[in-house]
TrEMBL record:
<dbReference type="InterPro" id="IPR008571">
    <property type="entry name" value="HerA-like"/>
</dbReference>
<dbReference type="InterPro" id="IPR014588">
    <property type="entry name" value="ATPase_Atu1862_pred"/>
</dbReference>
<dbReference type="InterPro" id="IPR027417">
    <property type="entry name" value="P-loop_NTPase"/>
</dbReference>
<dbReference type="GO" id="GO:0005524">
    <property type="term" value="F:ATP binding"/>
</dbReference>
<feature type="domain" description="Helicase HerA central">
    <location>
        <begin position="7"/>
        <end position="70"/>
    </location>
</feature>
<feature type="compositionally biased region" description="Low complexity">
    <location>
        <begin position="310"/>
        <end position="321"/>
    </location>
</feature>
<feature type="region of interest" description="Disordered">
    <location>
        <begin position="310"/>
        <end position="333"/>
    </location>
</feature>
<keyword id="KW-0547">Nucleotide-binding</keyword>
<dbReference type="Pfam" id="PF01935">
    <property type="entry name" value="DUF87"/>
</dbReference>
<dbReference type="InterPro" id="IPR002789">
    <property type="entry name" value="HerA_central"/>
</dbReference>
<keyword id="KW-0067">ATP-binding</keyword>
<protein>
    <submittedName>
        <fullName>ATP-binding protein</fullName>
    </submittedName>
</protein>
Length: 493
Protein backbone atom coordinates (compact mmCIF):
# COMPACT_ATOMS: atom_id res chain seq x y z
CA UNK A 1 0.00 0.00 0.00
CA UNK A 2 1.38 3.42 -0.96
CA UNK A 3 1.83 6.11 1.68
CA UNK A 4 1.53 8.95 -0.84
CA UNK A 5 -1.65 10.92 -1.44
CA UNK A 6 -2.20 13.55 -4.13
CA UNK A 7 -3.21 17.03 -2.97
CA UNK A 8 -3.30 18.59 -6.44
CA UNK A 9 -0.63 19.87 -8.74
CA UNK A 10 2.39 22.12 -8.69
CA UNK A 11 1.86 24.90 -11.27
CA UNK A 12 3.90 23.79 -14.26
CA UNK A 13 5.56 20.94 -12.35
CA UNK A 14 3.30 17.89 -12.16
CA UNK A 15 1.32 16.31 -9.27
CA UNK A 16 1.70 17.50 -5.67
CA UNK A 17 2.11 14.54 -3.34
CA UNK A 18 2.00 14.29 0.45
CA UNK A 19 3.68 11.50 2.42
CA UNK A 20 0.91 10.26 4.72
CA UNK A 21 3.25 8.24 6.95
CA UNK A 22 5.44 11.28 7.49
CA UNK A 23 2.36 13.44 8.14
CA UNK A 24 1.25 11.11 10.94
CA UNK A 25 4.56 11.76 12.69
CA UNK A 26 4.95 15.50 12.08
CA UNK A 27 1.47 17.18 12.08
CA UNK A 28 0.13 19.91 9.78
CA UNK A 29 -0.91 23.56 10.06
CA UNK A 30 -3.17 25.13 7.41
CA UNK A 31 -3.67 28.91 7.36
CA UNK A 32 -5.70 31.11 5.05
CA UNK A 33 -8.19 33.95 5.23
CA UNK A 34 -11.86 33.25 4.65
CA UNK A 35 -12.39 32.39 1.00
CA UNK A 36 -8.84 31.15 0.41
CA UNK A 37 -9.95 27.52 -0.09
CA UNK A 38 -8.92 26.23 3.32
CA UNK A 39 -11.96 23.95 3.79
CA UNK A 40 -11.57 22.70 0.22
CA UNK A 41 -7.99 21.71 1.02
CA UNK A 42 -9.05 19.82 4.15
CA UNK A 43 -11.79 18.03 2.21
CA UNK A 44 -9.31 16.98 -0.49
CA UNK A 45 -6.88 15.67 2.12
CA UNK A 46 -9.62 13.76 3.95
CA UNK A 47 -11.02 12.22 0.78
CA UNK A 48 -7.59 11.11 -0.44
CA UNK A 49 -6.71 9.47 2.89
CA UNK A 50 -10.17 8.22 3.97
CA UNK A 51 -9.47 4.61 2.93
CA UNK A 52 -5.90 4.63 4.25
CA UNK A 53 -6.19 5.86 7.83
CA UNK A 54 -8.83 6.44 10.53
CA UNK A 55 -10.07 10.03 10.80
CA UNK A 56 -11.64 12.26 13.45
CA UNK A 57 -12.94 15.69 12.42
CA UNK A 58 -13.87 18.52 14.80
CA UNK A 59 -16.33 20.44 12.63
CA UNK A 60 -17.72 23.69 14.14
CA UNK A 61 -19.83 24.59 11.08
CA UNK A 62 -21.10 21.21 9.82
CA UNK A 63 -19.03 21.48 6.61
CA UNK A 64 -17.77 17.88 6.56
CA UNK A 65 -20.85 15.80 7.37
CA UNK A 66 -21.21 15.00 3.66
CA UNK A 67 -18.19 12.68 3.98
CA UNK A 68 -20.47 10.15 5.65
CA UNK A 69 -22.38 9.24 2.48
CA UNK A 70 -19.34 8.31 0.40
CA UNK A 71 -16.77 7.22 2.97
CA UNK A 72 -18.89 5.90 5.86
CA UNK A 73 -17.93 8.40 8.55
CA UNK A 74 -20.12 8.38 11.65
CA UNK A 75 -21.64 11.86 12.14
CA UNK A 76 -22.13 12.86 15.77
CA UNK A 77 -24.37 15.91 16.29
CA UNK A 78 -22.87 17.47 19.41
CA UNK A 79 -26.11 19.27 20.30
CA UNK A 80 -27.80 15.90 20.91
CA UNK A 81 -25.32 14.54 23.46
CA UNK A 82 -23.79 15.39 26.81
CA UNK A 83 -20.16 16.17 27.55
CA UNK A 84 -19.73 12.80 29.26
CA UNK A 85 -21.19 10.92 26.27
CA UNK A 86 -18.76 12.63 23.91
CA UNK A 87 -15.82 11.74 26.14
CA UNK A 88 -16.88 8.10 26.01
CA UNK A 89 -17.41 8.39 22.24
CA UNK A 90 -13.86 9.69 21.76
CA UNK A 91 -12.49 6.67 23.57
CA UNK A 92 -14.70 4.12 21.84
CA UNK A 93 -14.17 5.44 18.32
CA UNK A 94 -10.52 4.48 18.75
CA UNK A 95 -11.40 1.07 20.13
CA UNK A 96 -13.67 0.33 17.15
CA UNK A 97 -11.48 2.18 14.61
CA UNK A 98 -14.42 4.21 13.30
CA UNK A 99 -13.93 7.48 11.41
CA UNK A 100 -16.05 10.20 13.02
CA UNK A 101 -17.24 13.73 12.23
CA UNK A 102 -18.12 15.67 15.39
CA UNK A 103 -20.63 18.27 14.17
CA UNK A 104 -20.75 21.20 16.63
CA UNK A 105 -23.06 23.34 14.50
CA UNK A 106 -25.78 25.04 16.53
CA UNK A 107 -23.82 25.18 19.81
CA UNK A 108 -22.55 28.42 21.30
CA UNK A 109 -18.80 29.03 21.53
CA UNK A 110 -18.58 27.99 25.16
CA UNK A 111 -20.26 24.64 24.51
CA UNK A 112 -18.25 24.02 21.35
CA UNK A 113 -15.04 24.35 23.32
CA UNK A 114 -16.20 22.07 26.15
CA UNK A 115 -17.64 19.43 23.84
CA UNK A 116 -14.52 19.37 21.64
CA UNK A 117 -12.30 19.12 24.72
CA UNK A 118 -14.32 16.18 26.02
CA UNK A 119 -14.15 14.33 22.69
CA UNK A 120 -10.42 14.95 22.27
CA UNK A 121 -9.87 13.95 25.90
CA UNK A 122 -11.58 10.60 25.30
CA UNK A 123 -9.39 9.95 22.25
CA UNK A 124 -6.27 10.91 24.16
CA UNK A 125 -7.07 8.65 27.13
CA UNK A 126 -7.85 5.52 25.11
CA UNK A 127 -6.00 2.41 26.39
CA UNK A 128 -2.57 1.76 24.91
CA UNK A 129 -3.85 -1.31 23.04
CA UNK A 130 -5.91 1.00 20.80
CA UNK A 131 -3.26 3.56 19.86
CA UNK A 132 -3.83 3.11 16.13
CA UNK A 133 -2.97 6.03 13.79
CA UNK A 134 -5.72 8.67 13.53
CA UNK A 135 -5.80 11.89 11.54
CA UNK A 136 -7.41 14.46 13.85
CA UNK A 137 -8.62 17.45 11.79
CA UNK A 138 -9.69 20.58 13.66
CA UNK A 139 -11.25 23.25 11.47
CA UNK A 140 -11.30 26.86 12.71
CA UNK A 141 -8.67 25.94 15.29
CA UNK A 142 -8.49 29.53 16.59
CA UNK A 143 -11.89 28.89 18.21
CA UNK A 144 -10.55 25.95 20.25
CA UNK A 145 -7.01 27.22 20.94
CA UNK A 146 -7.34 31.02 21.15
CA UNK A 147 -4.24 33.11 21.72
CA UNK A 148 -6.08 35.36 24.18
CA UNK A 149 -9.10 35.14 26.44
CA UNK A 150 -12.39 36.08 24.81
CA UNK A 151 -16.04 36.07 25.78
CA UNK A 152 -16.10 32.37 26.71
CA UNK A 153 -15.69 31.19 30.29
CA UNK A 154 -12.23 30.54 31.70
CA UNK A 155 -13.18 26.92 32.37
CA UNK A 156 -14.14 26.26 28.74
CA UNK A 157 -11.03 28.01 27.43
CA UNK A 158 -8.69 26.09 29.75
CA UNK A 159 -10.28 22.75 28.90
CA UNK A 160 -10.22 23.34 25.13
CA UNK A 161 -6.72 24.81 25.06
CA UNK A 162 -5.44 21.95 27.19
CA UNK A 163 -6.98 19.36 24.87
CA UNK A 164 -5.53 21.06 21.77
CA UNK A 165 -2.11 21.32 23.41
CA UNK A 166 -2.21 17.62 24.28
CA UNK A 167 -3.17 16.79 20.69
CA UNK A 168 -0.30 18.73 19.14
CA UNK A 169 2.38 18.21 21.81
CA UNK A 170 1.77 14.69 23.13
CA UNK A 171 -0.56 13.13 20.59
CA UNK A 172 2.12 11.61 18.33
CA UNK A 173 3.06 8.83 20.76
CA UNK A 174 -0.63 7.92 21.02
CA UNK A 175 -1.07 7.77 17.26
CA UNK A 176 -2.92 11.10 17.02
CA UNK A 177 -1.76 13.30 14.13
CA UNK A 178 -3.14 16.82 14.50
CA UNK A 179 -4.17 18.77 11.39
CA UNK A 180 -5.29 22.24 12.44
CA UNK A 181 -6.70 24.93 10.15
CA UNK A 182 -7.11 28.59 11.06
CA UNK A 183 -8.12 31.82 9.40
CA UNK A 184 -5.60 33.87 11.36
CA UNK A 185 -2.30 32.73 12.84
CA UNK A 186 -2.29 35.73 15.18
CA UNK A 187 -5.44 34.41 16.89
CA UNK A 188 -4.06 30.86 17.34
CA UNK A 189 -2.17 29.96 20.51
CA UNK A 190 1.54 29.90 19.72
CA UNK A 191 2.31 26.72 21.68
CA UNK A 192 -0.26 24.88 19.55
CA UNK A 193 0.89 26.25 16.19
CA UNK A 194 4.58 25.73 17.03
CA UNK A 195 4.23 21.94 17.22
CA UNK A 196 3.40 21.56 13.51
CA UNK A 197 6.26 20.67 11.14
CA UNK A 198 4.26 20.84 7.89
CA UNK A 199 2.63 24.02 6.60
CA UNK A 200 0.15 24.95 3.88
CA UNK A 201 -0.22 28.73 3.77
CA UNK A 202 -3.00 30.27 1.69
CA UNK A 203 -4.10 33.79 0.77
CA UNK A 204 -3.50 36.22 3.64
CA UNK A 205 -3.92 40.00 3.80
CA UNK A 206 -3.10 41.22 7.32
CA UNK A 207 0.54 42.17 7.90
CA UNK A 208 0.85 40.35 11.24
CA UNK A 209 -0.46 37.09 9.75
CA UNK A 210 1.75 37.38 6.66
CA UNK A 211 4.80 37.98 8.86
CA UNK A 212 4.07 34.90 11.00
CA UNK A 213 3.44 32.78 7.92
CA UNK A 214 6.74 33.92 6.40
CA UNK A 215 8.58 33.13 9.65
CA UNK A 216 7.13 29.62 9.79
CA UNK A 217 8.14 28.96 6.18
CA UNK A 218 11.63 30.40 6.65
CA UNK A 219 10.98 33.18 4.14
CA UNK A 220 12.29 36.72 4.36
CA UNK A 221 9.89 39.40 5.57
CA UNK A 222 10.02 41.19 2.22
CA UNK A 223 8.68 38.01 0.59
CA UNK A 224 5.64 37.91 2.91
CA UNK A 225 3.54 40.11 0.63
CA UNK A 226 3.44 37.25 -1.89
CA UNK A 227 0.67 35.67 0.25
CA UNK A 228 -1.68 38.47 -0.84
CA UNK A 229 -1.34 37.41 -4.46
CA UNK A 230 -2.16 33.72 -4.02
CA UNK A 231 -5.21 32.56 -5.97
CA UNK A 232 -8.12 30.85 -4.26
CA UNK A 233 -7.22 27.19 -3.76
CA UNK A 234 -3.45 27.76 -4.02
CA UNK A 235 -1.22 27.23 -0.98
CA UNK A 236 2.49 27.47 -0.28
CA UNK A 237 3.65 24.07 1.06
CA UNK A 238 6.64 23.23 3.24
CA UNK A 239 7.55 20.36 5.54
CA UNK A 240 8.98 16.84 5.74
CA UNK A 241 5.71 15.36 4.41
CA UNK A 242 5.66 17.87 1.53
CA UNK A 243 8.79 19.70 0.28
CA UNK A 244 12.01 20.83 1.88
CA UNK A 245 11.58 24.31 0.42
CA UNK A 246 8.42 26.45 -0.07
CA UNK A 247 6.50 25.30 -3.16
CA UNK A 248 3.10 26.63 -4.39
CA UNK A 249 0.43 23.91 -4.73
CA UNK A 250 -2.91 24.17 -6.51
CA UNK A 251 -5.42 21.93 -4.68
CA UNK A 252 -7.27 19.40 -6.83
CA UNK A 253 -10.98 18.67 -7.19
CA UNK A 254 -13.08 16.95 -4.49
CA UNK A 255 -15.73 14.24 -4.70
CA UNK A 256 -18.10 15.48 -1.97
CA UNK A 257 -19.71 18.86 -1.44
CA UNK A 258 -19.98 21.12 1.58
CA UNK A 259 -23.39 21.83 3.08
CA UNK A 260 -22.44 25.45 3.72
CA UNK A 261 -21.29 26.70 0.32
CA UNK A 262 -21.01 30.47 0.04
CA UNK A 263 -23.68 32.67 -1.57
CA UNK A 264 -23.93 32.67 -5.36
CA UNK A 265 -24.27 36.01 -7.13
CA UNK A 266 -27.53 36.19 -9.10
CA UNK A 267 -29.37 39.05 -10.86
CA UNK A 268 -31.24 41.24 -8.37
CA UNK A 269 -34.90 41.73 -9.16
CA UNK A 270 -36.51 44.36 -6.89
CA UNK A 271 -40.14 43.85 -5.88
CA UNK A 272 -42.74 45.55 -8.07
CA UNK A 273 -45.47 45.93 -5.44
CA UNK A 274 -45.36 48.61 -2.68
CA UNK A 275 -43.55 47.22 0.35
CA UNK A 276 -43.97 50.12 2.81
CA UNK A 277 -47.09 48.71 4.42
CA UNK A 278 -45.69 45.17 4.42
CA UNK A 279 -42.48 46.04 6.21
CA UNK A 280 -43.50 48.94 8.46
CA UNK A 281 -47.06 47.92 9.33
CA UNK A 282 -47.69 48.12 13.10
CA UNK A 283 -47.70 44.82 14.92
CA UNK A 284 -50.94 43.57 16.50
CA UNK A 285 -50.99 43.58 20.27
CA UNK A 286 -50.64 39.80 20.45
CA UNK A 287 -47.93 39.54 17.80
CA UNK A 288 -44.22 39.96 18.40
CA UNK A 289 -41.37 39.91 15.99
CA UNK A 290 -39.49 36.73 16.81
CA UNK A 291 -37.59 34.25 14.77
CA UNK A 292 -39.62 31.16 13.91
CA UNK A 293 -38.67 28.31 16.16
CA UNK A 294 -37.41 25.07 14.78
CA UNK A 295 -39.70 22.09 15.23
CA UNK A 296 -38.73 19.92 18.20
CA UNK A 297 -35.95 17.56 17.28
CA UNK A 298 -36.54 13.85 17.25
CA UNK A 299 -35.02 11.94 20.15
CA UNK A 300 -31.27 11.55 19.63
CA UNK A 301 -30.07 8.07 18.82
CA UNK A 302 -27.87 6.33 21.34
CA UNK A 303 -24.37 7.50 20.46
CA UNK A 304 -22.56 4.63 22.10
CA UNK A 305 -24.81 2.14 20.35
CA UNK A 306 -23.79 3.64 17.00
CA UNK A 307 -20.13 3.24 17.86
CA UNK A 308 -20.71 -0.28 19.13
CA UNK A 309 -22.12 -1.17 15.71
CA UNK A 310 -18.53 -1.21 14.44
CA UNK A 311 -17.85 -4.25 16.64
CA UNK A 312 -17.34 -4.39 20.40
CA UNK A 313 -13.94 -5.51 21.65
CA UNK A 314 -14.04 -8.84 23.51
CA UNK A 315 -12.40 -7.49 26.63
CA UNK A 316 -14.91 -4.66 26.94
CA UNK A 317 -17.82 -7.03 26.42
CA UNK A 318 -16.54 -9.39 29.09
CA UNK A 319 -16.16 -6.52 31.53
CA UNK A 320 -19.70 -5.28 30.80
CA UNK A 321 -21.14 -8.75 31.38
CA UNK A 322 -19.27 -9.02 34.63
CA UNK A 323 -20.63 -5.67 35.80
CA UNK A 324 -24.19 -6.76 34.92
CA UNK A 325 -23.82 -9.93 37.00
CA UNK A 326 -22.76 -8.01 40.09
CA UNK A 327 -25.55 -7.17 42.56
CA UNK A 328 -26.55 -3.48 42.78
CA UNK A 329 -24.69 -1.55 45.44
CA UNK A 330 -26.40 0.54 48.10
CA UNK A 331 -26.54 4.16 46.90
CA UNK A 332 -25.41 5.52 50.24
CA UNK A 333 -22.32 3.32 50.16
CA UNK A 334 -21.58 4.42 46.58
CA UNK A 335 -21.85 8.08 47.58
CA UNK A 336 -19.50 7.52 50.50
CA UNK A 337 -16.93 5.79 48.29
CA UNK A 338 -17.10 8.59 45.71
CA UNK A 339 -16.74 11.21 48.45
CA UNK A 340 -13.65 9.36 49.70
CA UNK A 341 -12.19 9.42 46.17
CA UNK A 342 -12.74 13.19 45.97
CA UNK A 343 -11.07 13.71 49.36
CA UNK A 344 -8.05 11.69 48.22
CA UNK A 345 -7.82 13.76 45.03
CA UNK A 346 -7.95 17.05 46.92
CA UNK A 347 -5.11 16.02 49.22
CA UNK A 348 -2.77 16.64 46.29
CA UNK A 349 -1.78 20.33 46.36
CA UNK A 350 -1.74 20.54 42.55
CA UNK A 351 -5.39 19.47 42.38
CA UNK A 352 -6.51 22.95 43.44
CA UNK A 353 -5.10 24.43 40.23
CA UNK A 354 -6.45 21.88 37.74
CA UNK A 355 -9.63 22.58 35.75
CA UNK A 356 -12.88 20.82 36.63
CA UNK A 357 -12.91 18.94 33.31
CA UNK A 358 -9.44 17.50 33.96
CA UNK A 359 -10.40 16.54 37.51
CA UNK A 360 -13.56 14.90 36.15
CA UNK A 361 -11.54 12.59 33.90
CA UNK A 362 -9.24 11.72 36.82
CA UNK A 363 -12.28 11.02 38.99
CA UNK A 364 -13.84 8.69 36.40
CA UNK A 365 -10.62 6.73 36.06
CA UNK A 366 -10.38 6.30 39.84
CA UNK A 367 -14.02 5.19 40.00
CA UNK A 368 -13.39 2.56 37.34
CA UNK A 369 -10.35 1.29 39.25
CA UNK A 370 -12.35 0.72 42.45
CA UNK A 371 -15.25 -0.90 40.57
CA UNK A 372 -17.80 1.94 40.55
CA UNK A 373 -18.28 1.70 36.78
CA UNK A 374 -17.42 3.89 33.81
CA UNK A 375 -20.14 6.51 34.36
CA UNK A 376 -20.22 6.93 38.13
CA UNK A 377 -21.38 10.58 37.97
CA UNK A 378 -22.34 12.94 35.18
CA UNK A 379 -20.37 16.17 34.89
CA UNK A 380 -23.01 18.38 36.54
CA UNK A 381 -23.28 16.12 39.59
CA UNK A 382 -19.50 15.89 39.77
CA UNK A 383 -19.17 19.69 39.80
CA UNK A 384 -21.60 19.88 42.73
CA UNK A 385 -19.72 17.14 44.60
CA UNK A 386 -16.38 18.83 43.85
CA UNK A 387 -17.66 22.18 45.15
CA UNK A 388 -18.77 20.48 48.38
CA UNK A 389 -15.43 18.69 48.78
CA UNK A 390 -13.42 21.86 48.12
CA UNK A 391 -15.40 23.74 50.77
CA UNK A 392 -13.80 21.57 53.47
CA UNK A 393 -17.11 20.56 55.10
CA UNK A 394 -16.97 17.66 57.55
CA UNK A 395 -19.19 14.59 57.28
CA UNK A 396 -21.06 15.59 60.44
CA UNK A 397 -21.82 19.11 59.19
CA UNK A 398 -22.84 17.87 55.72
CA UNK A 399 -25.82 16.06 57.31
CA UNK A 400 -27.18 19.16 59.08
CA UNK A 401 -30.21 21.18 57.84
CA UNK A 402 -28.04 24.30 57.71
CA UNK A 403 -25.68 22.70 55.22
CA UNK A 404 -28.55 21.46 53.07
CA UNK A 405 -29.79 25.06 52.93
CA UNK A 406 -26.29 26.25 52.01
CA UNK A 407 -26.11 23.79 49.11
CA UNK A 408 -29.52 24.96 47.88
CA UNK A 409 -28.30 28.58 47.88
CA UNK A 410 -25.10 27.55 46.06
CA UNK A 411 -27.11 26.07 43.17
CA UNK A 412 -28.27 29.59 42.24
CA UNK A 413 -24.66 30.67 41.57
CA UNK A 414 -22.34 29.95 38.62
CA UNK A 415 -20.62 26.57 38.93
CA UNK A 416 -17.13 28.00 39.36
CA UNK A 417 -18.26 30.10 42.37
CA UNK A 418 -20.17 27.41 44.24
CA UNK A 419 -17.08 26.04 46.01
CA UNK A 420 -16.15 29.56 47.23
CA UNK A 421 -19.66 30.22 48.54
CA UNK A 422 -19.81 26.84 50.30
CA UNK A 423 -16.43 27.52 51.90
CA UNK A 424 -17.75 30.83 53.27
CA UNK A 425 -20.99 29.16 54.40
CA UNK A 426 -19.12 26.36 56.14
CA UNK A 427 -16.96 28.89 57.99
CA UNK A 428 -19.97 30.97 59.00
CA UNK A 429 -22.08 28.00 60.15
CA UNK A 430 -19.19 26.74 62.29
CA UNK A 431 -18.56 30.28 63.64
CA UNK A 432 -14.91 30.22 62.58
CA UNK A 433 -12.73 33.17 61.54
CA UNK A 434 -13.26 34.49 58.03
CA UNK A 435 -11.00 32.70 55.52
CA UNK A 436 -8.04 34.64 54.16
CA UNK A 437 -7.68 35.75 50.55
CA UNK A 438 -5.10 33.01 49.98
CA UNK A 439 -7.48 30.31 51.21
CA UNK A 440 -10.34 31.62 49.05
CA UNK A 441 -8.00 31.69 46.03
CA UNK A 442 -6.96 28.08 46.67
CA UNK A 443 -10.59 26.94 46.88
CA UNK A 444 -11.35 28.70 43.59
CA UNK A 445 -8.32 27.14 41.91
CA UNK A 446 -5.93 30.07 41.52
CA UNK A 447 -2.95 31.64 43.27
CA UNK A 448 -4.16 35.20 42.67
CA UNK A 449 -5.33 36.83 45.89
CA UNK A 450 -6.56 39.78 43.85
CA UNK A 451 -8.98 37.47 42.05
CA UNK A 452 -10.17 36.16 45.43
CA UNK A 453 -11.02 39.71 46.51
CA UNK A 454 -12.85 40.33 43.23
CA UNK A 455 -14.89 37.17 43.78
CA UNK A 456 -15.97 38.42 47.21
CA UNK A 457 -16.89 41.80 45.71
CA UNK A 458 -18.90 40.05 42.99
CA UNK A 459 -20.81 38.03 45.58
CA UNK A 460 -21.49 41.19 47.58
CA UNK A 461 -22.71 43.04 44.47
CA UNK A 462 -25.17 40.19 43.82
CA UNK A 463 -26.52 40.45 47.41
CA UNK A 464 -25.19 37.02 48.35
CA UNK A 465 -22.88 38.12 51.18
CA UNK A 466 -22.09 41.23 53.21
CA UNK A 467 -18.47 42.22 53.89
CA UNK A 468 -17.62 44.13 57.09
CA UNK A 469 -14.46 45.08 58.94
CA UNK A 470 -13.97 45.47 62.68
CA UNK A 471 -11.81 48.09 64.37
CA UNK A 472 -8.64 46.02 63.85
CA UNK A 473 -9.16 45.63 60.08
CA UNK A 474 -10.30 42.03 60.35
CA UNK A 475 -12.92 40.85 57.87
CA UNK A 476 -16.37 39.57 58.83
CA UNK A 477 -18.54 37.83 56.21
CA UNK A 478 -22.31 37.45 56.60
CA UNK A 479 -24.42 35.17 54.38
CA UNK A 480 -27.56 37.06 53.32
CA UNK A 481 -30.75 35.12 54.00
CA UNK A 482 -29.85 32.66 56.75
CA UNK A 483 -27.79 35.37 58.49
CA UNK A 484 -24.80 33.13 59.22
CA UNK A 485 -21.76 35.20 60.19
CA UNK A 486 -18.07 34.38 60.45
CA UNK A 487 -15.81 35.47 63.25
CA UNK A 488 -13.33 38.25 62.44
CA UNK A 489 -10.34 37.06 60.39
CA UNK A 490 -7.36 38.73 58.76
CA UNK A 491 -7.63 38.89 54.93
CA UNK A 492 -3.84 38.65 54.56
CA UNK A 493 -3.32 35.87 57.09
Amino acid sequence: MTNMITLGEVPGGGPAHMDLAELLATRLLVQGNSGSGKSHLLRRLLEQSARLVQQAIIDPEGDFVSLAEKFGHLVIDGADYSEMALHAAGERMRMHRASVVLNLEGLDADQQMKWAAAFLGGMFEAPRDYWYPVLVVVDEAQLFAPAAAGEVSDEARRASLGAMTNLMCRGRKRGLAGIIATQRLAKLAKNVAAEASNFLMGRTFLDIDMARAADLLGMERRQAEAFRDLARGTFVALGPALWRRPVPVRIGAVETESRSAGPVLAPFVPPTEPVHDLILAPLPATESFTRPRKPPAAPAPDLLSQLAAHGEAQATTAQAEQEQDEPPEDQGERDARMAAILRDMLEDEETSFRSASVLYQDFLVRCRIVGLGRNALDLKSFNRALATARSGVSEDMSATPEWQEAESLALTLPEDLQSVFLCLARTAIARQPSPSDAEIARVYGTVSQGRARRLLEWLEDRNVIVLQADGMGRRIITIIGPGWETLPGMPQA
